[in-house]
Fold each of these.
Amino acid sequence: MKYMMFVCTDTEPDTDKAAEPDIEVWVSENDARGRRLEGSALAPTSAATTVRVRDGRLMVSDGPFTETKEVIVGYDVLECADLDEAIEVARAHPMARAGRLELRPLVELND
């Protein structure tokens, strides 16, 4: 099953003083096991463009319209046997301690 893992900041990171996992090790290990299909960091929210259509009119504006301090800073597409495996993969990601990770199953659309 494929999962989208949103990598997000968090206003309440873990306070554990133990060393955080190395992101390069996490990426290499999960790429080698075929569990990470792709992933990338995102440009800062200041580089975002918001697109909406209202009453048939295109509205384009700079930046996101969010009042939250938590933002999506990256993503990974995972291929895991089930949600339990996806949780274990996410658990080892450095942002599980510094931020938060949101897992969502990808829906296969039939043509």
Amino acid sequence: MKLLAFAASNSRKSINKKLATYAAGLLEGADVEVVDLNDFETPLFSVDREAESGHPELAKAFLQKIADSDAVIVSFAEHNGSYSAAYKNLFDWCSRIQPKVFHDKPLVFLATSPGARGGATVLAAATGSAPFFAGHVKAHLSIPSFYENFDLERGVLKHEELNGKLVEAVAALQQREPAAA
């Protein structure tokens, strides 16, 4: 299985990238590619800019990464209860190029933050909207209080119950859909 993982954040020290990377490593036998949104920085989306300049090559390249994968793990940073500006902008460009941004891929959506809610608000928004963009969310999980629950030195989730839920979430990417009757 070719697995794409990324944090919906452009922070160079992203805790969501740490979580996405760790989660991707839990899928045994997967060919994992972890990408950084900083490598896909695009101009601020506007319909005027789109009409004048077309679609950015980096947005096309990001869409191709999704298309070339078998499954995707995204860990969402929450900025004021919503998506990070970097992710939202790239996603807006991608949706103008290909409305089926997620290319009918199975997805695991995660979120974390230093706070007790762990990015739950943005995670709910992402999970709720994914089907409109041809995304099949197999599992979603919020990890609260990142710095208390994640061992930065070893790069692992140290909270046993949360780790078990994360293992189950990632394993859902390998589950086959039941055959239609």
Amino acid sequence: MRNPHDASPSNVHPDTWAVTAGRPSREPDEPLNVPVLLASTYTAGGDLEYGRYGNPTWTAFEETLGGLEDGRCLAFASGIAAIAATLDLLPHGAKVVAPRHSYTGTIGQLNHAEERGRLRAELVDIGDTASVTAAAADAAMVWIESPTNPALELADIAAISAAARAAGALTVVDNTFATPLLQRPLGLGADIVVHSATKFISGHSDVVMGAIVTGSGSLYDGLKKRRSLNGAIPGPLEVFLALRGLRTLPVRLERAQSSAKELVRRLDDHPALTEVRYPGFGAIVSIVLPSGEAADAFIDRTGLWRHATSLGGVESTLERRRRWAAEAPTIPEGLVRLSVGIENVEDLYRDLDTALSAG
């Protein structure tokens, strides 16, 4: 019989790994959880030396998320810090292909880099595989979101990754919306996976953190070096909370996804909506009202749903994305992004329907 201490991502299910990985040893009186280690420096002669280079609390989180993504993980201070470190891998003047509908922080990083002559960005329709692969021919990096934020378009990660690799380009996938429980980009040919751990991974709207996972030793070393040099490190308490949230990701996501699918079924022919967007999985839904004014009024009438810009928490939130000047102009003014939480689906639908019907 297999020794239960030998659990690995290859011999247990992902939901089991999320709960059991990164635990202390089974010696008597050892805690079940790795504690928050508050240390800025360590006694010399070991592997850590200084707090900017490592922390045992980080290690527990990185082992767990890395195993779920089938790679090696690095924790970062925020999702945007993880994005910046990844883009910093590229040489001066390199071309990056990215979705025209992306997280505004990603687009902001690319725009800032272009303004300084640091990088060149070409924004594409990520769902048009032929156009993406054509754009990748002279690129150094192809950045993918799938589903995209907030349009919820899907990319053919395997085909795009293969084309990018043939062109000598790196493929990066922002897997924040799907999580490794619904999509594993490294297994589809991607080189790097980026997460805003602020969202579904931590899942309780109390942590700002990011993460990067890669299967490449050289990319891992390069990214770890950038984290240390730039000081983009998370605090031990934040990492502890993110790991605690990750333990319950399987059950939170199962509940939220089930509710999202039911809401989509009910909203699909709602007379107040012009469109309902859902990629078929996950807990993010985008609905489109006739105008920005109608969308704002609808949001003001909701009760259970919280108007907030973040997502992926246990509470359901919603936001009209075009209220941000940085949002892509091709996103409809009346698009409202819903992040479905774990409340009772009947209550969630009743709140939406009441607010929509009152208009």
